[in-house]
Amino acid sequence: LATGPRQNNSIFYEIRTYDIKPSKMKDFVEMVNKYFHLRTAHSELVGFWSAELGAMNKVVHIWKYDNFAHRTAVRHALANDKDWQGKFISPALPLIEKQHNEVAYLVPWCQLGKPPKEGGVYEWVTFQMKPGGPALWGEAFQAAINAHINTGYTKLIGVFHTEYGLLNTVHVLWWNESPDHRAAGRHSAHEDARVVAAVRDSVRFLESQKNVLLIPLQCSPLK
């Protein structure tokens, strides 16, 4: 999707994934909840989650930027923020095993959504598509997403395509009331002829996929 049309503005999203040392996960989450207001004073946080199923000791957070110059200015300000560096970065870095980031745009046919209420769970699904971009598989992928939306069991929050990172990667963020509600909805979707047909068409362009069940942290705007 990175080679196809995107939104008319220059807004993009930085997706950060951190692997936390297993014995330090509780400490890291406590630090985030206590000090992350220092970070969000500089730029907009979309959401911050910890992995519950599909991965362990992992956190995912998404940041919104107006453009690349905006991100550069924010990173410069953070480097010079003594409170942020001293109270969070210095003590937090020893708790982190690995960091990974991607830059992504929302797909042109998707706007960033919000859940109908707080207290649910999020599913982060990553699709690695065949090279070729939307000219090859964009229409079939959109049809598969819409088929799931039309079942009504889940809420679409956002569909992101990578600009920096592993290309031809699409991340889809869903919201469900609970893991059991998702399981029941998935069971019904697998028996829905519209979903089956749309998925069968789109998987021709799929190389791999994986998913993680995410729980929002206290500091997360998306809860």
UniProtKB/TrEMBL annotation:
<dbReference type="InterPro" id="IPR012577">
    <property type="entry name" value="NIPSNAP"/>
</dbReference>
<dbReference type="Pfam" id="PF07978">
    <property type="entry name" value="NIPSNAP"/>
</dbReference>
<dbReference type="GO" id="GO:0005739">
    <property type="term" value="C:mitochondrion"/>
</dbReference>
<protein>
    <submittedName>
        <fullName>NPS3A protein</fullName>
    </submittedName>
</protein>
<dbReference type="InterPro" id="IPR011008">
    <property type="entry name" value="Dimeric_a/b-barrel"/>
</dbReference>
<comment type="similarity">
    <text>Belongs to the NipSnap family.</text>
</comment>
<dbReference type="InterPro" id="IPR051557">
    <property type="entry name" value="NipSnap_domain"/>
</dbReference>
<dbReference type="GO" id="GO:0000423">
    <property type="term" value="P:mitophagy"/>
</dbReference>
<feature type="domain" description="NIPSNAP">
    <location>
        <begin position="122"/>
        <end position="221"/>
    </location>
</feature>
<feature type="domain" description="NIPSNAP">
    <location>
        <begin position="13"/>
        <end position="111"/>
    </location>
</feature>
